[in-house]
Each structure stands twice: as C-alpha cells, then as structure tokens.
Amino acid sequence: MEGLHICKKNEYLEKSAQENGSISLLARGHNNEIMMQVIKKGNMAYINPGNSDELLEFLYILNGSISLRINDEKIILKTGDYFYVNKLKELAQFETNEDTELLYFSSQPVFFNISKRLNDLRDIAKKSQKKDLYTHDHGARVQHYTVIIANKLNLPKEKIENIFFASLFHDIGKIEVPDYVLNKPGKLTDEEWEFIKKHPITGMEMVNDTYYKDLSKIILQHHEWMNGGGYPNGISGDQICIEARIISVADAYDALTTDRAYRKGFTAQKAVEILESESGWKYDSVVLEKLFEALNEEEIV
Ligand SMILES: [Fe+2]
User: Fold this and answer.
1) What does the DSSP assignment read for 172-195?
2) 94 Cα to the center of ligand 1, angstroms
C-alpha cells in the first residue's frame, strides 16, 4: 500500500555504532526522525538545548533504567517510563544504570551528525572541491544562498532540509573526473566533456545508498537548463525539480565570483549582469530574482 512502510525487527535506514552503544535511524519524514538508541550500562548521555523553540525530543525507555540528574536531584526512570524536552534551556544529562534501549523521537534532524555514511560523503565532497581548485569553501557558500532562496520561495521544511544537504554534495561526482579535465583552461575535447557530463550521474549514485535518497534527483539535475540545453538528460522547465533549479543558480553565482584556475573571479555586480542575461532560458527567473534580493539585502550589490 502506498505510504505504508513495514519493517521487521533490527531493520533500519542506517545504524551507527558508538563507543557506548549504538543508534539506529528507523524512520524519517517532514523533518522528524525516529531512532532506537542502545546505551551500555554506566554511560552518561546528554540532550542539548538545540537552537529552536520548536524542537521536541522524546525518549521512551523500551528496556533498562536511567538516572536523570536535575540540579542535585536524581530521578530514576525504568522500562515504560519516558521523558521529553521542548524549549530546553540547559544541557540535560542522564546516566544508564543498566544496558538501556531507548526509542528516541526528534522533531528536527539530528542523525546526520552521527551518520557514518554522510560523514564519508562530506569528506569526499571536500576532496572533490579541492580537485576543482576552489580555494575557499564553495559548498558552504552555495549552501548559504540556496537556503536563503528556498526560504524566500516558502518551500516546505523538508525541501529546505534536502537543499541544505544537496548543496554540500551536488558536485561530489567530480571525484571521478580527472584533474586535468576539471581545470583545463581551453576548450574540452568530446571525450573530456563526457567526463564532465557524467558527474551529476556519479553523484546521484553515491547518495543513492544513503538514507537521504531524495538528494539523488537534485544532484542529477543541477546542470539542466530551463530551455533543455543542459546535461545530462536535457530536461527542461518544471521537469527540473525546484531544488535543482535553486542549486544551479547559487552554484553559478559562486563560480562566477570565485577565482578559478583559468580566470579571476568577477565582481558581484558583473556576475549579476551575466546571470541576468541567462535568466529564463538557462536559469529559472523567479529563483534568480530571489538570489538578487538576497544579495541586495546583504548589501553586496
Ligand atoms: Fe556540478
């Protein structure tokens, strides 16, 4: 049945071993995450206040016993007991009195901090950025503008979360493009161009085995053009997902304003003029407008 997910015992999206136990991501959607945490006897665990009043974290003891420390008081919670935090102002800590299994719900993503696979991808993203000879943090700058644009377009939280990660990982497939092709100043041969055209596909394949599968389409489409003249599939207009249209704009702006192996970076003003001339046929004009608004608000242009 569409929308129904049945999972058997010990099935999970990703499991991460930790020094004091393990944590498995069981389900996620609309920014919420449901996890199963196992903490061995005699370990301390912490709940951070988080940076939003909307954050709700709920922990249900499936098995075991913990001691919550509140000021000087010690409160013991056992199997079947639970607690949750919302608008938490200071660090909350507890200790496990025995091996303990907790069902852990969070209304905001937390698992990405723990995920081994995503951390591996972060390392690859850094390496491929280096290959591309971006001197500063290209991914973080692209991410800065994609998130602002997505918010300006009032995209749902889930799409903004996807954009956040896809911005960091969109060029991850360049890890397989030879360095001399990436930084070649002159015209590329057909064979070299084939390498470049493949990087969205390679990137898509690399995120396919993570629990962030939604990123694969965004990564695949980040070089498509509104008129169908892009790559790898030559799709056009609304066939290109909005997240990819946003990344394509932020990526282009950052590439234009950054020094590259083969040219100096343009001024912000010049970059805006170039992008304006490509509005509509290459880039989504509404998305581009939002980037210009953001640059204006930051008093960059
Ligand atoms: Fe790219």
Assistant:
1) GGGGGS-HHHHT--SPPPHHHHHH
2) 45
- Single residue among 112, 134, 159 that ends a domain in this structure: 112
Distance 203 CA to ligand 1 centre (A): 9
**C-alpha 2 to ligand 1 mean position (Å):** 33
CATH number at residue 31: 2.60.120.10
- Ligand 1 centroid–CA 216 distance in Å is 13
Cα-to-centroid distance, 116 and ligand 1 (Å): 24
Ligand 1 geometric centre to CA of 262 (Å): 17
> How far, in Å, from the CA of 266 to the mean position of ligand 1?
19
Q: Which domain holds residue 233?
A: 116-297
Domain-located, residue 205? yes
| Residue 234 lies inside a defined structural domain of this protein | yes
Do 67 and 208 lie in a common domain? no
Those residues whose beta carbon sits under 5 angstroms from the ion ligand 1 are 171
Whether the full predicted model's pTM is greater than 0.70, yes or no, is: yes
Residue 194 lies in a domain: yes
Calpha distance 292→298 (Å, rounded): 10
Tell how far the Cα of 171 is from the centroid of ligand 1, in angstroms.
5
133 shares its domain with 264: yes
Centre of ligand 1 from the C-alpha of residue 247, in Å:
9
Residue 54 counted as domain residue: yes
From first to last of the 301 residues of the chain, give the pLDDT tens digit: 988 999 999 999 999 998 899 999 999 988 899 999 999 999 999 888 888 888 999 999 999 999 998 888 899 999 999 999 999 988 889 999 999 999 999 999 999 988 988 999 999 988 888 888 775 678 889 999 999 999 999 999 889 989 999 999 999 999 999 999 988 888 999 999 999 999 999 999 999 988 888 899 999 999 999 999 999 999 999 999 999 999 999 999 999 999 877 788 999 999 999 999 999 999 999 999 999 999 999 999 8
- Which residues, in sequence order, are bridge partners of residue 16? 23
Q: Model confidence over 189-245: pLDDT tens digits? A: 999 999 999 999 999 999 998 888 889 999 999 999 999 999 999 999 999 999 999
Integer Cα distance of 150 and 246 in angstroms = 7
Strands 56-63 and 65-70: unpaired
Strand ranges for 21-143 from DSSP E? 21-29, 32-39, 44-47, 56-63, 65-70, 73-78, 82-86, 92-96, 100-106
| 128 CA → ligand 1 middle, Å | 11
